[in-house]
């Protein structure tokens, strides 16, 4: 199981901007940074050279990472230096694009030669070829069309013969194309299929969790069916709750949530809801005892499904939820009394009294719920101190600056975003998109936008991490029309473009 916070830190550290601008060099162990720098800096500005060393001996491992400021510099270095020798070394070096752990060890070099571009609906392949041929030899152009109407879908793929040609086009083509390096087809297919194979791979991929369950219940694997009667043997220290709140982004079907949390003994109910607009699902899960609920939070918070969906698991400490569960038990008990015996009016009066007490207890901590947003009652509304709320600017105000917002794992409610971003003044509006993990905040003054960026970038809002960046340009009408299920954000570029993909949306950070 991956640690969510650690994964986010790794992603931030490993994000090369611009994309594919860091190369991996396999070389002689006797070579030093001083030997590599003059050989590689002729291809462009070098931001950093790192040569890992053995922790025990301090000797070079015979590898190096060279980070360039431009993708084309890295591509030129690979083209010219691969299998060449340096400093009279008899062993030729090997030079390739440095990959990350989250690249799934994909060795298909075509992903460095294929660009994904946005085009207007009337664009033709000859028009696209004419523009992109200026940067290198174009192998093919694939203009995406609707299978039914044969109309252009507003984007295309441009395949080059070499990584260097693609890199030049990526950097120098007209910005209206919003060029990015395309996600390989096999990665898109793997993302689509992995969740479907979840049932088959579930027990094997989570064997460590199942093993821990066995240890907590002091029973061999073959006696798993007896675990419901042995919940008292759980070693986890119980807390004062038996109900948990589960959030998953992107959303998965209820059967996968049921299967995962039913591993822990004593699950009595799973109330599942999905928010298709924001692209996540939630479940309220109740266990027979507090220890099982505690263990579910400890072991399954930040759990990652095989296809990348992330779970957030925390105690359900909403007093109204507890009141609702208790009221349900009261009503069911009284209903049974009516069905099978003459109802006891004393019991009815007692049920009404208990219901009244529960409602008062649930609302005694503050104003009526209709006057206070539920999220605003939480202590962890925002991880940083915010100034008092300020009124919104007129909706017809001129937009002085836009902020580009990235959410992980999913967007908070829009009213919560407005609550946070309005505190710097001059906020015109905040918008998010269905099934996407990004949005925009529009300000009527640059001062307010910059203050929002300085304060909220890297903060958490309702336990959702924010990235708040300066948007480089105002989106056109076509941008807004085409922000659909085929769009995603590419964090490998510093231009913060909208990435349109064919049928899948992913977000890398």
pLDDT average, as an integer?
A: 75
Main β sheet profile? 5 strands, antiparallel
Low-confidence stretches: 1-14, 199-207, 216-235, 365-379, 475-509
General shape: elongated
Looking across the biggest beta sheet, what order are the strands in?
14-15-13-17-16
Beta-strand percentage? 15-25%
CATH architecture of the largest domain: 2-Layer Sandwich
Please state the oligomeric state of the protein chains shown.
single chain
Give the terminus-to-terminus CA distance.
19 Å
Q: What fold name goes in the CATH topology slot of the largest domain?
A: Alpha-Beta Plaits
Pfam families: RRM_1
Biased composition (Basic and acidic residues): 473-502
Protein name: RRM domain-containing protein
Keywords: RNA-binding
Structural features, described:
With 509 residues, this protein is α+β, with helices and mostly antiparallel strands. The protein folds into five domains: 81 residues, RRM (RNA recognition motif) domain (Alpha-Beta Plaits), CATH 3.30.70.330; 70 residues, RRM (RNA recognition motif) domain (Alpha-Beta Plaits); 118 residues, Alpha-Beta Plaits (2-Layer Sandwich), CATH 3.30.70; 44 residues; 100 residues, RRM (RNA recognition motif) domain (Alpha-Beta Plaits, 2-Layer Sandwich). It is built from 15 helices and 19 strands. Strands 14-15-13-17-16 form a five-stranded antiparallel sheet, with helices on one face. A four-stranded antiparallel sheet has the order 2-3-1-4, with helices on one face. Helix 3 runs antiparallel to helix 5 and helix 11 runs antiparallel to helix 12. The two termini are 19 Å apart.
